[in-house]
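JOB MANIFEST
job_type = single_chain_structure
chain_count = 1
residues = 356
[input]
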Amino acid sequence: MTQRRELSNEQRIALHDGLVIPAHPLALTADRLLDEQSQRALTRYYMASGSGGIAVGVHSTQFEIRDPKYNLYEKVLRMAAEEVERAGLTRPFIKVAGICGPTEQAEQETDIAISLGYDAALLSMGGLTGWTEAQILERTARIAEKMPVIGFYLQPSVGGKVYSFDFWKQFANIPGIIAIKMAPFNRYQTIDVVRAVCYSERRDEIALYTGNDDNIITDLLTVYNFQVEGKNIEKRIVGGLLGHWAVWTQKAVELLDEIKGIRMNPTLASEWLTRNIEVTETNAAFFDPANGFAGCIPGIHEVLRRQGLMKGTWCLNPHEELSPGQTEEIDRMYKDYPHLNDDAFVKANLSDWLAE
């Protein structure tokens, strides 16, 4: 068995301190072919914004990249890895590969990610709704033998399902689990994961990340307290691995830095709860929950198109389009919350990122 490549000590410390990790979109031409210039520009944008990593091959990168007729999975992972290597960053940076499918497919994708120098696998459980919890745990352990794993609690509306507290407790005990991204968009289920990790002897080895686009700021500000065998255990959600942070990323980095600065403050100003609603409302415009998230990927693309980072909103699936009224909602976000966008930052750097 191949020895699992662990995160460096610097990467591990950064992961637990909290990072902005955008879910990398897929840039296409009007002919629905890979737009390599824009694809590389996006990776450069995320690094220049101060993000602590990128997640490639995930939902925002479009699952269709795995379809043999497109065959883009390895290519988009390779391009992102090349840009990270070319940048020569001096700070810790974590390259996360999206891994999905049944065990055999997941292992093949993991081998590709390892060969390209990726640091961790974001292991999706989407599309496996017929599997038992025991089968999911076995699959997870197989991948974690090869590569550090970030677990992923995906909401049922986009292919996930609800898992028990006992499942997450066993999940946390698997060697090689370094983090869990919680994206059930549900308070009860989010609490289940945090509590399960607190009950695990590996609690200090696992960083918790929000994927709850509907509650980002509150997730990042909350201290969870649980009584475990008579001892008070505290745990925080320290960062985010988010499709929402694929846009206005420089402002997201500023936001997380500001939150880190006030976490030790015993009093929480009500303005933060208001800001949580502002961020949640912008997410509603981008991710389109009004239409069952049908426009979530085109919504991200539309913001990046307006900034010049992408040429259009095209997806590999031609039926994935902006929903009626979604463009107007994005217009309203720019009007109502101008302090949340990073357009000036992008404008100042765009020509550099688009350079060959």
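[summary]
The chain is about 45% helix and 15% strand.
Strands lie at 20-22, 53-56, 94-99, 120-123, 149-154, 177-183, 207-210, 223-228, 231-242.
exit_status = 0
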